[in-house]
Amino acid sequence: MTAEQPRHYLAVSDLSGAELQNLLSRAAEIKRQLHAGNPPALFHGRVLAMVFEKSSTRTRVSFESGMAKLGGHAIFLSPRDTHLGRGEPVEDTARIISRMADAIVVRTFAHERIEKFAAHSLVPVINALTDHQHPCQLLADIQTYVEHRGDIAGRTVVWVGDGNNMCNSFIEAAERFDFTLRVAGPPGYEPDGQLIASSGARVELFHDALEAVRDADLIVTDVWASMGQEEEQARRLADFAGFQVNAQLLSAARPDALVMHCLPAHRGEEISTEVLEGPNSVVWDEAENRLHAQMALLEFLLAS
Ligand code: CP
Ligand code: NVA
Predict the structure, then answer these.
(1) Residues 110, 163: one domain?
(2) Does the N-terminal peptide bond of residue 264 adopt cis geometry, omega within 30 degrees of 0?
(3) Is the CB of 31 under 6 A from ligand 1?
C-alpha cells in the first residue's frame, strides 16, 4: 500500500484486464487451498472495516468469513452503531477508519458517496454495492463461468431484467473480459447511457427477451426492484412482465447455457423456481465464489 494514493475497487474498470485475469487465477488457487483445508494466513494482523448502509447476507459473510479464515479480522459497522448514521461526514469517517484499518469495504446508496469516501481514505476502499455498481459480484460471476465453461472471451452473455447496478457492472466486465453483452428489459429500464455509449458495439439493447437469449452462453438476471426501490415494487412487477427467466426463455438459449443470479432471488418474479433450482443454474457456486474472489481482490489491493 502506498500511503498517499491507495488503489481502490469501486468499479470493474478500476482494474485492467490483465489484473482481473491474474486476480481470478489467484481466486481459484485460494479456493483450492481452502477446500483442501490448508488456508494461507494471507491477512495475519490485518484489519478490514466493513461499512454497510444497506442489508447484506452474501457480501457481509464472504468478507467477514474470508478475513477470519485467512488470519485477519473484520469489523462490521452498521449505520445504527456508528456516527455515520447520526450525520458524521463521510470525509471524517473515511479519514478516521483508514488510520486504523488496512482496507475498507463500503455498501451504500449513491455512488458519489463511496467516491467521496475513497477520496479521503488512506487505505484501499472496495465497493460492496452502490446504486450504480456491484463490482465484487462480477469477480465471482466471471470466476464461476470460467470454472464451468472456460474462458468467457467471445461468449454471448444476456442480461434479462432491470438495467441496474449489476447490469452496469456487467457492461464494464464485457469490455474487460471481451464478451458480447445483450441487455433485455422493458423501455425505461435501460442501464447507464454513458456506459453503453462507451462500450461500443459490445453491448446491444433488446426489448424482447426471447430474441435476446437466442444462442446465449450465459443468462443473468436480478431482482426487479433493488434495495431503495421498494415503493416501486408494484409498478415494476407490471412493467417487467415478459422478462422472467423461465424454462421457455431458457429453451431459446444454447442447451449448455449457464444461468446466474447474484441473489437474493424472488422466485416466480424475475426467475422461476424451476430454472433457479435446475441443471443450468450455477447460483450456489456463484455465491460461494464471492469469498474466494474477494480474498484475491484484498490480497491484490493490499499489495498495491
Ligand atoms: N449478491 C449480494 O451482494 O448479496 P447480498 O446483498 O446478500 O450481499
Ligand atoms: N440489484 C440488487 C442487488 C442485490 C445484491 C440491489 O441493489 O438490491
Answers:
(1) no
(2) yes
(3) no
User: Distance between CA 3 and CA 68 in Å, rounded?
Assistant: 25
Res 200: pLDDT: 84
Same domain, 129 and 104: yes
pTM recorded for the entire structure: 0.97
Compute, in angstroms, the gap from residue 215 CA to the centroid of ligand 1: 29
d(CA 291, CA 225): 25
Span 205-260, pLDDT tens digits: 999 999 999 999 999 999 999 999 999 999 999 999 999 999 999 999 999 999 99
CA of 129 to the centre of ligand 1 (A): 8
Rounded CA-CA distance 124/126 in Å is 7
Asked whether 56 and 107 are in contact (CB, 8 A), the reply is yes
262 has catalytic annotation:
yes
Query: Mapping DSSP to helix (H, G, I), strand (E, B) and coil, where does residue 35 land?
Result: helix
Any idea what the CATH number is for the domain that residue 264 is in?
A: 3.40.50.1370
Known active-site residue 167: no
Q: Is 134 a catalytic site residue? A: yes
